[in-house]
Amino acid sequence: MGDCDLEALQRAVEQFNRGEFYACHDTLEALWMEAVDPERRFYQGLLQTAVAYYHLQNGNRRGC
């Protein structure tokens, strides 16, 4: 994982902690698209978590 990836991951964590789940998703998606396994699966899991919280935040329980 390069320095750029670490900065983006830190940004995603900060976005998640502020409840900015859509922005977090976008940040993680950029990392996920460039990653290879096992990091790709790691980012995928984080992405799915951010999306679930985004849907929950918007009252879409079925979507989460």
Please give a structural write-up:
The protein has 64 residues and is an all-alpha fold. It has one domain. It has 3 helices and no strands. Helix 1 packs antiparallel against helix 2 and helix 2 runs antiparallel to helix 3. The radius of gyration is 12 Å and the shape is globular. The mean pLDDT is 91.
Key terms:
single chain; 64 residues; mainly alpha; 3 helices; globular
SS element count, helices: 3
Structural class: mainly alpha
Number of strands: 0
Write down the overall mean pLDDT. 91
**Topology as a string of helices (H) and strands (E):** HHH
Helix content percent band: over 70%
Task: Note the overall shape.
Answer: globular
Strand portion: under 5%
Largest sheet: none
The radius of gyration is: 12 Å
- Number of separate domains: 1
Low-confidence stretches: none
Instruction: State the end-to-end distance.
Output: 29 Å
What's this, in brief?
With 64 residues, the chain is mainly alpha-helical.
Topology record:
Blueprint: H1 3-17, H2 21-34, H3 39-57
Helix pairs in contact: 1-2, 2-3
